[in-house]
Amino acid sequence: MATSPDNPGDPTLNTGFLRYLPEKFSRGILSLQGILLISVSIASGFQGIFGMTWLKFPILAGMILFSLLVAISGSRVIRVFLVLGLLCFPLTFQYAEDAWHTLNEGAVRAQLFLSFITAIMVLREPAFRSQLLQAAGNIIVRQRQGRRVLMLLLGSHLFGLMMNMGSVVLLGSIASSRDREKATAGHRYSQQQSALAIIQGFVTTMLWSPLSLALVVVLSQVPGVTSSMITPFGLLGVLLLFTLSFAVSQLEVWLRHNSPELVSERTEGADVRGSRYFLKILMRVILLVVAIFSVITVLSLVASVPVPVAVTLAIPVITLVWLMIQSHGDIAVCFRGPVANAIFRTLPSQSSEVGILLVAGFMGPVLVALMPSADINAFLQSHHTSPGMIVLAAFFAIVAGGVLAVNPLISVTIALGVLADPLALGINPLLLALSILVAWAIASALSPYTGVTIVTASMFGVKSTTLALVWNRLFGIIALTVCAGVILIFGELTAIPIP
Length: 499
What we know:
Order of helices and strands: HHHHHHHHHHHHHHHHHHHHHH
Structural class: mainly alpha
Mean pLDDT: 86
Oligomer: single chain
Radius of gyration: 23 Å
């Protein structure tokens, strides 16, 4: 996770093979990783927006060098992924029809993933330092039970749009600290509801946010679907999951209504001034989100490039402007402090995670090329499988994979590889894209192995399995049931005649 500006720390020097190297040399490797990441991200933005095709080879060289460095400094998991990525080369030349085209697609996708996630990570720096977001977080956790759940859902969602996983760190640390101060049984239950609201509010950003990796992956694999088509339906999905989350939290309170400690928890409230003050802060946060997204949208429209490409250049610029404002226009203070922290500490601390995404992005087109998609489609057609059932099977496969420790990025890539031509199966591409996004969001909330669950569990002092599979069990059952019904109904209503 990103380092907090109040406790910046250093990326660990004890991971990978860095523990065997001199400290000065290890720090040099980490610093070079940060420089490579931000350089590739900005270069990708210039390449996509201004048509600088000559940047392709320097970017490719940067990604290769980054991969070599992260093999030295990263975790065992990233080294396994790098080996799998290398195995893709002989398999592609052996079995793919057009090996070079497939490898080129993999390189382009890896570049997009790396540059996109790097841009998102640097935005955490000013967001972590924002007094506005800190104030909002402190007010949220002081509310009464019902209002606090609603505000944590909304706050985690809005903060997640700007801070990604940083929103979980910020709200989780504030909420868990407050609950530990009042270690009664009622407040332990309040702690459970706070943790779940933070997770459920954050994962719903995947349904529509242009700063979500999930949306980038789905748009890159589902033909004919754009972010403008996804956004209105994605927001409806957010509203549905928010409603289910709040309803489940109140149902659990009602089931425990005889508990005296919960009575005291419900009657304990925030002062009126705090609530009114929060409304003012909330409007400022919303305006901030609108301003960021407006810049991205305008750049995408003016340059006629996809939103993810616009993000790779717009977000670093927005980050720099925001940090300059926080530094009161002092360029030296800005670059020596927060900019240096972002490049030389925050980015290197996330190098293993970025490396995994880079390899996963590269492997995606290779897996699609190696899969017998035509045979699978022919089998489904011969058995007259309904579009709704096909999409529902993909939906549950992704959720089940998450619970069983399969990263949703991998399961989504495989599922969309199998369903590479949804029209041939009578599936509406928009329904497929939305269903996959919802599956990814729910899988992230129910899996004990995703980053959001692990980080939240550590903040609240519980096991990730307890958080995901016990505390979140009722929400999972109800959400999966409702979503399954919606997919089946709209799968039939939006079915496309097979030519």
